[in-house]
């Protein structure tokens, strides 16, 4: 749900600067959590519940975090925001938000008999893809519902990412504001994903593509986090979302935004 230590590979290394030595001022210390499986129904919003395997061996992205819970609950309560859309989750970690959305959309299709929609795409660094795949499998989700792909943040989108997801209609991002040196790369990736769509139809999906929007949820931990939001507001159109009920359930300091490109 955020870049882990491999995101520092592009940073210079020297005797004075060790990119893998991260002080508490950059990343707050958190008690280790044993690997295990959690069942989540998001306060009764999700049927069947999401089964999430959490494992920190490849970094802190391997467990659920409060902003991910808030974003998932908000989308589950407002499923029409994402129904039938091309959806991509950034920094998905184990896939909490994307998996919850995929389960809800699949259940909705079965109940309403709604038409075709593309699978939810969950992305992160390569080390977290096996955990994402494990969570897809334990929830018995087919590739028509959800798929996983590497997406390291930076100036360009990887060629391994299917073309359909280069201009998603909905970007989901939870707990991505965490490792300060990666903030510029996150902004570059958001700029790429929120570019205007071509306007052409996409085969079986059919309808013309809508302008992309990002639902961006974060927990404030340091002053640098709010500086990131100030920069985000300079580059994009950013609206606060009132999600007080979801936020109160997860604790304070969580912010939810709707982000789109400037007209």
What descriptors fit this protein?
263 residues, alpha/beta, Rossmann fold, 6 helices, 9 strands, 27% helix, globular, EFM6, SAM-dependent_MTases_sf, protein-lysine N-methyltransferase activity
Task: Explain what the structure shows.
The protein is α/β, with parallel strands linked by helices. The protein has a single domain, classed as Rossmann fold, CATH 3.40.50. The chain contains six helices and nine strands. The strands form two sheets. Strands 5-4-3-6-7-9-8 form a seven-stranded mixed beta sheet, with helices on both faces. Strands 1-2 form a two-stranded antiparallel ribbon.
Q: Strand share of the residues?
A: 15-25%
**Helix content class:** 25-40%
Number of helices: 6
The CATH homology group name: Vaccinia Virus protein VP39
The first-level CATH class name: Alpha Beta
CATH architecture annotation: 3-Layer(aba) Sandwich
Radius of gyration: 18 Å
**Domain count:** 1
**According to CATH, what is the topology?**
Rossmann fold
pLDDT < 50 stretches:
1-31, 199-206
How many distinct beta strands? 9
Family: Belongs to the class I-like SAM-binding methyltransferase superfamily. METTL21 family. EFM6 subfamily.
Enzyme class: transferase
Organism: Gomphillus americanus
Binding site for S-adenosyl-L-methionine: 65, 91-93, 124, 153, 174
Topology (SSEs and partners):
Blueprint: E1 36-40, E2 50-54, H1 66-77, E3 87-90, H2 96-112, E4 120-124, H3 129-138, E5 146-150, E6 170-174, H4 183-193, E7 213-219, H5 223-235, E8 237-240, H6 244-250, E9 254-260
Parallel strand pairs: 3-4, 3-6, 4-5, 6-7
Antiparallel strand pairs: 1-2, 7-9, 8-9
Helix pairs in contact: 1-2, 1-6
GO cellular component, one term: cytosol
Function: S-adenosyl-L-methionine-dependent protein-lysine N-methyltransferase that methylates elongation factor 1-alpha.
Enzyme class: transferase
